[in-house]
Amino acid sequence: EEEVGTEGWNELEDSYGFLYKKTDDKGRKKTVLVKCLAFGDILTVDAVPTGDGERKAPLDLQI
């Protein structure tokens, strides 16, 4: 897979997003969409596992 640069990932002051991708040993693509948003002193992180038509419930975390 081709790597992409990280330029501009932090252009917004209070929100970030990432897409992690990996292919497992059986050739299935696994992806996780991660979004982070700052609310005052709290950082909320939402992660949604997706890939090859597989959709799972999002995971939420407040730090």
Describe the structure.
By secondary structure, the chain is mainly β. The chain has one domain (15-62). Helix content is 0%, strand content 57%. Strand 3 (42-51) and strand 4 (54-55) form a beta hairpin. It is flat and about 45 Å long. The mean pLDDT is 80.
Weakly predicted, low-confidence segments:
none
Per DSSP, what share of the residues sits in E-state strands of 2 or more residues?
over 45%
| Structural class by sheet pairing and helices | mainly beta
Largest sheet: 5 strands, antiparallel
Question: What best-fitting shape do the alpha-carbon axes yield?
Answer: flat
Mean pLDDT: 80
Oligomerization state of this entry?
single chain
Taken in chain order, the helices and strands follow as EEEEE
Q: What would you report as the Rg, rounded to the nearest angstrom?
A: 14 Å
Count of domain modules: 1
Helix content: under 10%
Query: Helix segment count?
Result: 0
CA-CA gap between termini: 32 Å
In total, the number of strands is 5
Domain PI31 proteasome regulator N-terminal: 5-53
Protein name: PI31 proteasome regulator N-terminal domain-containing protein
GO biological process, one term: proteasome-mediated ubiquitin-dependent protein catabolic process
GO cellular component, one term: proteasome complex
